[in-house]
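FAQ

Q: What does a record look like?
A: Structure on top, sequence underneath. For example:
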């Protein structure tokens, strides 16, 4: 409730400044927009003309008629809000309210998963509650002025649907998230890997096919609007051409290295962000790409190996959430672009895993990174001037997020099943329909066939 009140204050104190999204929605629907405004935002070309200069022009084809850094799913979102609220002020209120509601829905789904996993008592419960309450204060207007909560919601919804035994719907949710912000699509192969490992190969293929169709549908929609097929992936070219953002892990690491070694750096204001340029930046980016690929493949391999032991629903869910969090961390930390709103991506996984081994560490580090982000914005001028008072808060933010990612990865290495066996509270653990349980009683392993909707493993039957 406290978080809802804070977000309401963020929205209605002043309408969220989402003019760029309003402009894109106008281009898509053939509504009024200001010619040249997006060029000024992206590349500082010309001068930002006021809204009074907006003119109604025919609908434009994304990526062919105008450049855009966002995937077509995001443009669809901007167009939907513009169809509901054409006035710029009303657009800001509607957009901000939608993001606030989606944030609460994300926290709700993550909380349900956390209680499904267990361990949400004492410190983890208090920490998760405090995190939800203070997040609007720490991240501030980014929650309602950016759309990063949409892929976060679709990601946790996809995991929840997979848990409910609906792999097609799970793949569709994650594929749609990938059409909005790319990274949720990486969770589709994780779910498919786990299903395949458990022998559910038809369900694994269904998840992949549904995910592919969901991510392709908005791209097909862009082509239907007039985008040339060769241009429909233009947002990837935009990302490829971007320099290193100063607050990214690569950027801060290079600033610190240059300060120690006395190497000159150049600041650039382009692509809608503050960036750094230096000789040899491509080598740094290639190294980050190699690290990212190894991290993603390593996470998938760990999930494959550990899922062999994931006979129960709880164990499988824990492994899937940990792998998903590790993948998100690898993508964010190894990227040349790492804006403040990207911290929202970590939220559902940090909350859902709070009660698990290493989960409290991940959650506390995540909240600390949000606090460091807030501090870094107060010292932004010092950051772009390469002064330590601005560099250190960003370095702390990135370090805390690295700790969060490492904690997610550590959850894949085992130990939780042993924790379960030591429980003597008489609780039961749900299992997937149709799977066989392997329960050791008095030193002998017995198989229990699951039929129907669910079954339980009674902890009291274990000889501990």
């Amino acid at each position: 409730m406290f978080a809802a009140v804070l977000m309401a204050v963020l929205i209605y104190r002043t309408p969220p400044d989402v003019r760029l999204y309003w402009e894109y929605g106008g281009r898509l629907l053939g509504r009024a927009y200001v010619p040249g405004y997006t060029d000024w935002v992206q590349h500082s070309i010309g001068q930002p003309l006021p809204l009074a200069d907006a003119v109604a022009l025919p609908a434009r084809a994304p990526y062919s008629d105008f450049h855009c850094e966002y995937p077509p799913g995001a443009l669809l979102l901007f167009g939907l809000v513009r169809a509901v609220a054409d006035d710029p002020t009303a657009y800001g209120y509607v957009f901000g309210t939608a993001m606030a509601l989606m944030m609460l829905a994300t926290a709700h789904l993550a909380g349900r998963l956390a209680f499904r996993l267990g361990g949400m008592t004492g410190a983890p419960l208090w920490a998760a509650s405090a995190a939800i309450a203070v997040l609007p204060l720490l991240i501030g207007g980014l929650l309602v002025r950016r759309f990063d909560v949409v892929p976060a919601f679709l990601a946790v919804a996809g995991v929840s649907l997979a848990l409910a035994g609906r792999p097609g719907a799970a793949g569709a949710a994650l594929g749609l998230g990938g059409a909005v912000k790319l990274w949720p699509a990486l969770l589709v192969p994780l779910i498919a890997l786990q299903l395949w490992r458990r022998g559910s190969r038809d369900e694994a293929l269904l998840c992949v096919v549904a995910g592919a169709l969901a991510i392709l549908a908005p791209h097909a929609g862009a082509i239907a609007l007039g985008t040339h097929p060769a241009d429909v992936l233009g947002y990837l070219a935009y990302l490829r051409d971007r320099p290193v953002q100063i607050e990214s892990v690569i950027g801060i690491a290079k600033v610190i290295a240059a300060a120690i070694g006395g190497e000159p750096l150049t600041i650039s204001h382009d692509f809608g962000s503050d960036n750094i340029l230096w000789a040899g930046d491509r080598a740094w980016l290639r190294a980050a790409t190699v690290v990212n690929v190894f991290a993603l493949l390593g996470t998938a391999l760990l999930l494959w190996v550990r899922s062999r032991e994931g006979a129960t629903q709880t164990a499988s869910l824990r492994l899937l959430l940990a792998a998903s969090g590790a993948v998100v961390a690898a993508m964010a930390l190894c990227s040349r672009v790492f804006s403040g709103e990207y911290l929202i991506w970590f939220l559902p996984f940090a909350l859902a895993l709070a009660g698990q081994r290493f989960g409290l560490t991940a959650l506390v580090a995540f909240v600390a990174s949000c606090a460091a982000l807030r501090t870094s914005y107060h010292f932004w001028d010092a950051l772009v001037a390469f002064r330590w008072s601005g560099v250190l808060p960003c370095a702390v933010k990135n370090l805390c997020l690295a700790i969060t990612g490492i904690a997610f990865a550590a959850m894949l290495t085992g130990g939780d099943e042993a924790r379960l066996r030591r429980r003597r509270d008489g609780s039961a653990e749900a299992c997937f329909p149709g799977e066989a349980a392997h329960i050791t009683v008095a030193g002998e392993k017995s198989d229990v066939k699951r039929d129907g909707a669910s079954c339980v493993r009674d902890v009291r039957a274990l000889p501990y």
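Q: Is there anything notable about this one?
A: DSSP finds 20 helices and nine strands in the chain.
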